[in-house]
Amino acid sequence: MRAVVYRETGPSSVLEVVDRPVPEPGPGEVRVRVVRSGVNPTDWKFRAGPARGWDEVSPGQDGAGVVDAVGDGVTGLEVGDRVWLLLAQHERAYGTAVEQTVQPAARVTRLPDGAGFDVGASLGVPAVTAHRALTSGDVGRLGPTRLAGRTVLVAGGAGAVGNAAIQLARWSGATVVSTVSSKEKAGLARAAGADHVVDYRSEDVAARVREIAPDGVDLVVEVAPAVNNDLDREVTRNGGTIAIYANNGGEELTLPIRPTFSKNLRYQFVLLYLVAPELLAAAQEDVTAAVAAGALRVGADAGLPVHHFPLEQAAAAHDAVEAGTVGKVLLDVAAG
């Protein structure tokens, strides 16, 4: 089988396509014939960072394809099932940038009928991260009415996680406000379903959000806490939650104690790779339900343009994500 690998960390030029034996699933594992492999910022960051303890690594946390072999003890998955993958390269040498990948059954989820492989490969890290952010505090699970009556502020609604957060929050009944940095990104946030879009480069964000939610928003999904915390604190209601999933704009966050605790604020930090298995399972179930309902989509009309690269151009795909390409970057591993 063809596989994209690197043997030493560094720039995208360390990636190469090689032939490798087809792996066999062990107990509790399934093998998936990969159709699409999703590329996330973590993929290029892992590739460019310190060595990971394997002689060879194939990147790719997310993907979608078809089950073609099942190990002993696996229930709920069968050969021929269309599936999406989560954390495929976490604590493993081989992810989804391969023609066939072996994964623990818990990381493999059936893809609803009617949902394409582009959607399936775009879930994983973005959608499950968004789910964890939206279920911060007292929500627990998502569903068609779980966020009814609540207002959610999504920072950076044109990004992959922001897009998923908008779509999942709207599916769950919330009013969604999103901040963006341009007219183009405003259009994407609206396409994703945001009820209100605020351009932070040209508008007074705090004033606009207070017009929309006079008592403050219930939840903030935050991508840049180091630069946005004063704003978040100002626009979040008493007892609200600020959920942080990235460190864009700075590595340190300083909180003024009295203004923060006087509003009884809750901070939730989300790092997907250390989320408890039962919480991941809940997210997989809810995300799949949203996909089945047609509420979680990809493409320009859903606010997330898709950019396809052949497997042989994995380096260019990594470069596109590192350069901040707006939308979702996918590797076409097989036809489908």
Automatic annotation (TrEMBL):
Record keyword NADP present: yes
Alphabetical list of Pfam families matching this protein: ADH_N (PF08240), ADH_zinc_N (PF00107)
InterPro entries linked: ADH-like_C, ADH-like_N, ER, GroES-like_sf, NAD(P)-bd_dom_sf, Zinc-ADH_QOR/CCCR
SMART domains: PKS_ER
CDD domains (alphabetical): zeta_crystallin
The Enoyl reductase (ER) domain, residue ranges: 10-331
Keyword NADP: yes
Top-level taxon of origin: Bacteria
Keyword field: NADP
SUPFAM superfamilies: GroES-like, NAD(P)-binding Rossmann-fold domains
Protein name: NADPH:quinone reductase
Species for this entry: Nocardioides taihuensis
